[in-house]
Structure formats: structure tokens, C-alpha cells
Protein: NADH:ubiquinone reductase (non-electrogenic)
Amino acid sequence: MHNFTRIIDNGKPRVVIIGGGFGGIELVKSLKKADLQVVLIDKHNHHTFQPLLYQVATAGLEADSIIHPFRKCFEDQPNFYFRLAEVTSINTEKKTVETTIGHLRYDYLVLATGATTNYYGNEQIKKHAIPIKSIDDAIALRNHILSNFEQALLTEDEEELNSLMDYVIVGGGPTGVEVAGALAELKKHVFPKDYKELDFIKMDIHLIQGAPRLLSGMSDEAGDKALAYLEEFGVDVWLDRFVKSYDGYTVELDNGQKFITKSLIWAAGVVGSPIDGIRKESIVRGGRVQVDEYNRVTGYEDIFALGDIAAMITAQTPQGHPMMAPPAMQQGKLLGKNLQQLISGKPLTPFVYKDQGCMATIGRNRAVVDLKVLKTQGFFAWLIWMFVHLISIVGYRNRLLVLINWMWSYFSYDKGMRLIVGHKKDPNAPIHKQAPTTTQTTFS
Amino acid sequence: MHNFTRIIDNGKPRVVIIGGGFGGIELVKSLKKADLQVVLIDKHNHHTFQPLLYQVATAGLEADSIIHPFRKCFEDQPNFYFRLAEVTSINTEKKTVETTIGHLRYDYLVLATGATTNYYGNEQIKKHAIPIKSIDDAIALRNHILSNFEQALLTEDEEELNSLMDYVIVGGGPTGVEVAGALAELKKHVFPKDYKELDFIKMDIHLIQGAPRLLSGMSDEAGDKALAYLEEFGVDVWLDRFVKSYDGYTVELDNGQKFITKSLIWAAGVVGSPIDGIRKESIVRGGRVQVDEYNRVTGYEDIFALGDIAAMITAQTPQGHPMMAPPAMQQGKLLGKNLQQLISGKPLTPFVYKDQGCMATIGRNRAVVDLKVLKTQGFFAWLIWMFVHLISIVGYRNRLLVLINWMWSYFSYDKGMRLIVGHKKDPNAPIHKQAPTTTQTTFS
Structure:
């Protein structure tokens, strides 16, 4: 019978953290010396460095170099326990979390479940669009892109050819801009060498943005430069446009404009995914959980939330903080300190977000960076972007591998990971309560 | 409709090669300057460096660093065409190959389909045992091993615990020996740090070998040293034993001895997989296709076979050549020359195998090497093993990544890739004639 049997009450207060994203692992880290039992529950056994998922999806990096096993991250932290499970609900009366492997009592609970892709309630789009939110998403997209070109070789029907060669990316935020730029680079430097029998003039890359400018979260200079770079790379950018429908073949925009594609990449926003059991009074728009300045969920003494899932609504931040890594990491760090303060009955420190700015890369030598100290675009911005991402990647080995891959791609104009890797059944896979089964069609 | 429409008759003889293993890619390479149309058909879009699959399975290397896209391998070879497909049969009358994407006419056909895992006709074992023959096998095994320990944390039942922590490896050839050694290293250096709540004294690793000695293909010194090294690493080696049955839980040997395990790793041998349409008179034991000294399939003028699938039965090689990379590569290289000779009506050169010896690594600083010039075991042998494998890996980038991973693991006593990577459906996956669908249960 599955349970948490090996996590024994040792008299110390138990902090249960749901989710090992940027906020969750910062919190675990900052509890390293705490006299607590720290239990991290995640549905993956690894942290994912989400900002570089798009490079896995576009054959620039191998998946393993941007994910890092939790047990490895914290192997030197004696108070750390990890369990691979999905939390299904929480019981705030009994103070337990219900999971796919049984239930666990908590003294303090931290929701760090992050956000999921937002399809704005459109089930048809949800069914057919391709998200890039998890490592599995990224690998599936890579397989999809490469399979499309293998398929394109097999048809002479012009419309089918376009449906396989053309890409529509929805969302003009950093992810959408970065995916569009990376596809444009593949179109220019890589695919023509791989698929000599195809004419890549025919490969159209469309980027659909709902706002009048790209990178709405950033400065006008950044947004305008990003647009200029993408157009220079041959990407068709459509501003002030929304996708009305997509059936897996035809995309229709709000103005009736249509595109034919088997690849609608959805980067149009995220929404929080609160867990059953949280009082609905605490759930605000965007599916986020309202927290006070100490990241405590409103209406609870012992439940906290941080990162994308947490909406810290104040006079300065009426919308809460941006759903990005930096606020999550800063909140995780502070909450670690505050939990220890709380337990020893000392006063807590309110959270103040230190905005370090925002950046996006469009491709080779092209990035846009808004920092407190400077706004810059182009080659220097691109160097800053690479530096900041490199030092942020979890795990020294991963950092080294990413650096080498980037240098290799830069000098060779190549993307090495053009691999369609199929999937295989584990004959004796331990059958797991409520474990979903996914299927994948491969060529092999 | 799927077909080979973009491979146009250009008046040049068309060589169709089925399979891009060691033999197949050597053949393509040696046809680089040939005035031919060279078509490679494979069910993967990448070459797999099989000798290191076991390191992917045991978290030592990322999958992407030992596989290399065919289109990348031959991007500078104008006469090269690749198609991602599975060959279902051959029509030697019409001179066509029937595939999952349609049929293609050939002037010369080369079978380089390699070998598959040999279960010696035991369907029950085939159903439950875990093979290591493809990159998907290796990733599935890695997921399986890590999932087992996550599961082990959830039980207090001693028998279930053993079934999850114990491993039985069948086959005392290089692969079996290397897997056993790698698991022993994980047990010693890695898993105890990852799973502090488990007692790794309980992790048993059994290696079952049918012959009276390990590494039957190699010298007595090599076999005896391998045994000594494995026992030093705490592996239980059972010589002169066969597996009678395995139901996914209980392994029974020919002497009635039983082991409880959810992980029976099958490395007990391979068997050729000939394609429908080859006259059965040409198919010899082990499912191999009989060829003459020019790798021409007996009874045909225009069909050739090389590597594992080819049995070149001569007075010196009554069993054909060993089913390993070196004979395949040497045959591929020579066949490339001979095909050009044949077309220009010149005499062919008979194949003579240059045996470069054989080697296996047991783990850190421990390998056994039999070369023509010397037989050695231990640290020096281990260096030779690494050097030979490094220079053999296809792709400079892959070589560099493998080298870095090896150095990293060596100095850190760590294996970085302890990642359970789930699988995801491609919503708009181009549906492919006869494409098999595999399913995978994940925790996430």
C-alpha cells in the first residue's frame, strides 16, 4: 500500500511544500539549517529550468541539461525529504495533503504549484494547440517539428505541404518571441541542409500577439526592437490579433484571417492552478491564491503560497507580482526566513519585490534587455541574456553542458539535437494510483 | 498519400540501404563520391551508438549525446537521401521495397537491419524482461530503475521492497557485465545519497551467465578478471545457469533457484531479423542471411547484407563473424568500394575480417581488454576502453559531451542523469501507416 510511511514524526514541525519550481527550491534551500522536517512533493523527480524549454523544443539543447533531480539538489540537506506524487486535494481541517501515494499531515503547508497554460476556456484550442510548459511538452514539440518535415517530404499536395511547413505561434511575450526567433534560425541555417528536397521559401512563421506591441511587460524600445529583429529574420508578426478557433488544421483569427498549419504553438499566457480544499474566498482572478505580504494565504494561519500561484495584492501591486521566476525566487528565500521566525515567535519581514528587469532573446546576437540600470538591445543584450541564464541554471554540470552547446551552435550555425526520440513501455512499471497514462505515436 | 515522390530517377543506379547502424553508415560514407543515388531507410531519424546504451540506462549519459541525426551525418553528401520509415517486405521480382510510407524501386539493395534481442522463443520472458537494444529501451530502463526506488520508499513490506530494490541481469557478455558494474556503482556511490531512507545493503544485483565463464567471446584472463571485479563490487554472479521463467516478479533458474525482482534485464543475446521477401534458402540459424565473401546474399545478384544480419559462412568463419560493430563497419566500408567496382564491371575484393579484439568495462578504473597486441585488465584497460569508445562516437559534439560527462562523473563520483522523463502525446502527430503506438505509465 502506498503511503508516506518513511517520513516519521521526529517531533520537529513539518513543512510540506507542493511544487519544486523556482520558488519551491529557493524555499527548501533557505530552510537548510532550519530545525524542521522539510517535505517537497512534486509530480516530477526533477526541477525544470523553464526559461530554456523553448531551446529544447527547437533542438538547441538536450532535455537533460536543463532539468536537475531534486534529490541531487538537496543531497546535503539532512532535513529534506522528497516524494514523487501528485497532490489531489488538501484537508485544512485535518491539516493533511491527499496525494496519489496517500496522505500526509502538515504543520505548515506551502503551495508552490506554479501555473499552467491558459487557453482562456477554449477547449478546441486546448485540444489541438501545442504548449511549452513542461520538459515533456518541449520534447513532444521537438518530435512534432521534425516529424512534420519528414512528412512534408512525402507529399506533393501544396496545401498539405504548407500545413506541415508553416508555424503559427500565439503570444508575443518572451516565450512566443523566443520560439519564433529560434524557428526562424532553424529555417535559415539548419533545415535547408537537412531537407534539401524541400523549398524553405515555403516555410512561413507567424507570430500572433493580442496587444499592439510585442513583449508588453517590457519597455517600448524592447518591444519595437524585438519586432524589428523578428521581421529581419522573416517572421510575420500580427499585432492586435486574437485566435478565434483552431481545429488542428485551420487557424482563424478574430478578423477572419486564416492560416493552414498542423502546428499552433500556444504561448499566450498562463493561469494558476489552485488545489482543491482552499477556500474559494482566497482564490482571485487568474486562478491565483491571494496572499498577504508574508505570502500567507488569506484566511489561513498555516498555509502559504508563493510564485506564480500566489497573488500578493497590495496598493503597489494591484495585480500581484509578474508570473516569472524572480518574484518566486525572492518570495521563496524570504518565506524560508519567515517560517523560522514564525516558529520561534519572532516578527516576520514583509515581502518587497526587487525588480531586476526582464529580457528576451530573438536569436543569434539579438536580444532585448530591460534592467534597472540600463536598457539595451542587440549583441550586448544577447551576451547579458546568455550570462544571466547560464548563472541561473541549476547544477554546475548543466551549466557547463549548456555553455558548450551554445558555443558549439554559435560557431557551427548548427543545432545538434535534431532527434526524434520515441517512447517505450516499461513492462513492469509499478502501477500507480491515479497515474495518468499518456500515449505517443512514433514513426518507429 | 505517402510515397517516395521526391526521390526522382536521375538515371543513376539507386542503392537502397535498410538500416543506419554501424554497417549502414559506413557504407553510405564509402559511397560519398560514387555516381549513384544512395537512399537510407531507417525507423529512427538518428544513428545510435549502441555500445554506450547501458550508460544512458544507468544515468551516466544523456540519450542525445550517443545518438546522431542521419541528415546531419551526411549533410555534405549530395547523393544521399534519407527516409524515416519501416520496411515491411521486399519484392525481389519487381525489385522494390515495401515500407510504411510506400514502395521504392531499387537497383541494388543492402540489408543492414542488424539484430534484435533474443528471448529464445520464451514469450513470457519477452513480455516481462527489459531489453537494452535501442535508445528508447535505455530511457525506459532508466525511468524504471528510478521509479522503482521512488516506489520502494512507499512500502514497508520486505518482499515488495526486495522486488523493487533487487536486479537480475541475464547474460554474461559485455552488455550484461557492464550493466551489472554500472548498477553496482550506483548502489555504492549514488543511490544511498538520493534515498537516505532506504538501506542499500538490501539491494542485490545478480548476474546470470549460461556459460562456465563471463565474456565467453574473450580470453580466460578477461573473463576471470571481470568476475573478480564484479564480486569486488558486490555483484552476485551465477555461472552455468539459465533462466527458466519470469512472470514479472519471480525469476526461476534451471536449478530451481528463485529470485524476486520487478527488474529482469535481458542481455542474453541477439538474433537477426530478416525481412519478408528474402528466399528462405538464404536464411541460416540465428535469423541471419547467408552472404558470400562479397556480402552478396546467396541466390541474388543485386541484394547484399552486412553486419549482424549477415552470416558470411566460410571455412575460417563457420558461424559467420561476431555480431559486433567492427565486422559491420569493415564490411560497410568494403561493400561501398565493391558496389562501385561491380557497376563499372571491375573485379570485387573479398572481405577479410581484421579482428581488433574486444573489450568490456566493469566500472571505475576497471576494464578488460583483449587486443591483438596485448591483453590487459584494470586501470590501463579502462583508459583504453574509454579512448576507443570516445573516438568511435559519431559526431564531434557528442564526443565532447560524453568526455565531459565522463570526467564529471569520475571526479564527482556522481551520475548526473537521474531523471524520470515522462512522455507526452503530440496532439497533431501525423498519423503514419502501420506506425505502432506504445504507451508509458508515468508518475506525473
About this structure: Confidence is low (pLDDT under 50) at residues 430-444 of chain B. Residues 174-194 of chain B form the longest helix (21 residues). The longest strand of chain B covers residues 37-42. Chain B has eleven helices and 27 strands.
